[in-house]
Write a structure and sequence with these properties.
globular, 257 residues, Umud Fragment, subunit A, 7-stranded antiparallel beta sheet
Length: 257
C-alpha cells in the first residue's frame, strides 16, 4: 500500500509539472501575441538609434492586431483589429512585404498620401525639406563583435520631422546611391519606412526589395531596451557581461536614443 501511494503521488507530481509547463507556454504565447514581443537588432541599418546587439521589447497593441500579430502569421483574418494609426517618427517592426517570414525594423517616415523624396541626402516630405542639424560625429568602435583598430567617425545629424519628432541619423555623404531619389507617392493603407543609417539601409527607397509597407504588415512599435551587447559576449555568457554589456543602454526607451 505504501508503494501504491508513493506511485500515485509521483504520477500526480509529474502531471502537475506538465500542466504548469503548458500553462506557462500558453501565458507566454498570449503575452507575445497581445502585449510585448522581444526582438534583437542584427544589422546597423538603424544606427545610431539602435545598435547591433540591442534587444528590445515591441508593443503589439500599439497599432492593433493583424494576422502577423499571431505566431507564424496564419491567414485567419484580414486588416487590423483595434486599429491605431502609426505616428510619423515611430520605430516599428514590420513583416517584409516580399517575404512575410522576415522581420524588419525601421522608422515610419511617410504616411498615406505623403510625397517622399531624397535630394542630396536631405529628406523631403510633401515638397518641403526636413530640418537637420550637424552634430558631433558618431564613433564606431566595434563591428561584428570585433573591436576596430581605428574607430570610425561617421557624420551625424539630428533630424526634426514636421510633427516635432527628433532623432539622430548617419550620412556618409550626398552622393551615395539612395541620397537622390524620385518622388514616392504613398498609397492609402501603406507606409514609407527608412533606416536612420541612411547610406546603409535597405528600406522603402529600395522598391524591388522593400518598397511601401502595407498596414497589415506592421507588427508593433519598438519600446524598451532590455539588453545590449557589443558582440564580444552572448546573452548566456554571463562571465563576459562586465565588458560586453552596454550598461548605459539598458532599460531605456527607444525614444531616449
Amino acid at each position: 500500500m505504501a508503494n501504491a501511494r508513493a506511485t500515485r503521488k509521483g504520477k500526480g507530481g509529474v502531471g502537475e509539472t506538465v500542466r504548469t509547463l503548458v500553462y506557462a507556454v500558453l501565458i507566454a504565447v498570449v503575452i507575445r501575441t497581445v502585449a510585448f514581443e522581444p526582438f534583437n537588432i542584427p544589422s546597423g541599418s538603424m544606427e545610431p538609434t539602435l545598435l547591433v546587439g540591442d534587444y528590445l521589447f515591441v508593443s503589439k497593441f500599439s497599432y492593433g492586431y493583424s494576422r502577423y500579430s499571431l505566431p507564424f502569421g496564419p491567414d485567419l483574418f484580414s486588416g487590423r483589429l483595434f486599429r491605431q494609426t502609426p505616428e510619423r517618427g515611430d520605430v516599428a517592426v514590420f513583416k517584409l512585404p516580399s517575404d512575410p517570414s522576415t522581420d524588419f525594423i525601421k522608422r515610419v517616415i511617410g504616411l498615406p498620401g505623403d510625397r517622399i523624396q531624397m535630394i542630396e541626402s536631405v529628406l523631403h516630405i510633401n515638397g518641403a525639406p526636413v530640418e537637420r542639424e550637424l552634430i558631433d560625429d558618431f564613433i564606431v568602435t566595434h563591428r561584428n563583435g570585433v573591436a576596430l583598430r581605428v574607430p570610425q567617425r561617421v557624420p551625424q545629424y539630428i533630424e526634426t520631422l514636421p510633427n516635432g519628432r527628433r532623432y539622430r541619423t548617419l550620412d556618409q555623404g550626398p552622393n551615395e546611391p539612395l541620397d537622390n531619389t524620385a518622388v514616392f507617392q504613398i498609397r492609402q493603407g501603406f507606409y514609407f519606412m527608412m533606416g536612420d543609417n541612411r547610406d546603409n539601409s535597405q528600406d522603402s527607397r529600395v522598391t524591388f526589395a522593400v518598397g511601401q509597407v502595407p498596414e497589415q504588415n506592421l507588427v508593433g512599435r519598438a519600446e524598451v531596451m532590455f539588453f545590449s551587447t557589443n558582440g564580444t559576449g552572448h546573452f548566456w555568457e554571463f562571465w563576459k557581461w562586465p565588458t560586453a554589456i552596454r550598461w548605459r543602454r539598458l532599460f531605456k526607451t527607444v525614444q531616449e536614443f
